[in-house]
Amino acid sequence: MRYFVLVGAVIATVAAWTGYWFYAAGLVEADLARRAEQKGGPNSTGVQLVFESYEISGFPYRIQLTLNKPTIILHNETQEIRWQTDQIKAVGHPWQPRHVLFDLTGEHHLEADIDGQLRSLDLSSDAAQASVETEANGRLQRLSLDIKNILVRNQGLEALRGQRLQVHVRQTPGSANSLDLALSGHTLELLGEGLSELSFRQLPRNIKLLDLQSTVTELSESLPQWRRQGGTVEVRKLQLHSGEMEIAATGSLALDDQMRAIGALTAKIKGHDELLHMAVANGGMDEDQASVARAVLGLLAAAGGGILSVPVRLQDGLLYLGPAAVARLRPLTTPGPN
Fold it and tell me: Strand 206-216 vs strand 233-242: parallel, antiparallel, or unpaired?
């Protein structure tokens, strides 16, 4: 008798779990259909999803959604961003529906209209995994991205190669309108052709280590709106190793009315000569200015045992190390209406 009771309990449990799995899979399919039906218009805001085909699998322990030839369109009243790739795999578990793992390995193409010009980025990698956690209302709670052997092309030209790049984003505890952002990179190479038009082209070309921990406040839909609302990037930690140069800094950054970076940092720099060579090579200063800056900063570094402890200011389109202006800062985008 007990044997039959046990068998019956097992059968009931299996049947219940099977029913629950197909119910959860049905919810995924319904949500997929709803998103695919959304259409973007001239005054619409949201996310549109287009794909060639899909498959839901993974029974009994997980739900895996495979999208073939997907295009994801993010749009608001003034801008549209398109993301296309060959395949996306998303894996979740019925008992943890708000935590989804993504396999993003492969090639990705992004397009956006920036200041009236169509810009494109192409990304490829040997392995790319993402983890996304959301709140009950669908709002992002935490995102992690881990990419290995990445290659980025800007307008078809190689811009970045890297051994590993990791990104972590989470809702700032106690703040509904801020995000904590952490970025970690190992063995990154910035390539000149693909960076010639980008405002960060003055960064070092070969980066052994990049470690950024920050908080972005006053989140907005666009950079001009973010500036108008008083948005800042609070840098809790910035560590950069490139060649013989090592930089450690903390501080706060924002944008001025011309969309150039402004702010103040406290930095410790080893091998600051590389910064001056880079500034001259990129047109940030001429050789005479570099010679004066080298003399002034050399005295400050000598007083610190070879480590330059100096305030860093970004003001009026110039980057200052202590009293020396070492680089010009370009606008990140057009200011937009006030």
Answer: antiparallel
